[in-house]
Structure formats: structure tokens, C-alpha cells
Amino acid sequence: MQYIVKPRAARKIYTFYGNVAKKYRHTYDKADYKRNVRDALSSIYDIECKLLRCEPTIGRWKGYHMANTDKWYFAYTFDNETVTVVDACHAQNMHESNK
């Protein structure tokens, strides 16, 4: 299976953990940042294998499939053997107003 991660989805992950690093700069270091980003990006490769397809719970993802880990939700399309991740959202930010 082939996986494509669109820039918007990757940017959401990098930005989320960048904001965590700013907020907790005395306890959250570069190694934490790198590990969290790597784990989030790696979890994408479980879509359509371990992470089951479900209907999106937020309106802006209408028309996409949704999959989630314990921390991240992903909006994606599935065409033959290609998963294209178009957006990502951390679980604590899953609500309609998040752009």
C-alpha cells in the first residue's frame, strides 16, 4: 500500500508539537518533540491496516474517510492501494471551529 501525506496534515502535526514545546519549554525538549512527531507520522501507516475507517465527526472533513489513534485523527482518501492523508487533528482539538 502507498501512503501520501499532504503538507497540511504534516504541518498540523509539526505545529501542534511546536506549540507544546513553546508552552512547556522547561520540561519538553527537542528529543520529546522529535519523538512525538515521528510517532504521529508513523501512525499514519496504520490507516486501512490497524486503524479502521469511519465516518468523519466534523463537518469540514465531509467527503473524506477518518481514522484515529489515541492522540490523532486523520482525514484521508483511499483509492485502490493509495491512502492520501489530507488533514490531521490532535484529539484535544477535535471540534468544528478548528481550521
Topology (SSEs and partners):
Blueprint: E1 2-5, H1 7-23, H2 30-43, E2 65-68, E3 72-79, E4 82-90
Parallel strand pairs: 1-4
Antiparallel strand pairs: 2-3, 3-4
Helix pairs in contact: 1-2
Jot down its keywords.
99 residues; alpha+beta; four-stranded mixed sheet; 2 helices; 31% helix; globular
Quick rundown:
With 99 residues, the chain is α+β, with helices and mostly antiparallel strands.
- The best one-word shape is globular
How many beta-strand elements? 4
Strand order within the widest beta sheet: 1-4-3-2
Helix content: 25-40%
Number of helices: 2
- Mean model confidence by pLDDT: 93
**Which spans have pLDDT < 50 for at least 5 consecutive residues?**
none
| N to C succession of SSEs | EHHEEE
Architecture overview:
The model has no long low-confidence stretch (mean pLDDT 93). Helix content is 31%, strand content 25%. Helix 1 runs antiparallel to helix 2. By secondary structure, the protein is of the alpha+beta class. The radius of gyration is 14 Å and the shape is globular. The chain has a four-stranded mixed β-sheet with strand order 1-4-3-2.
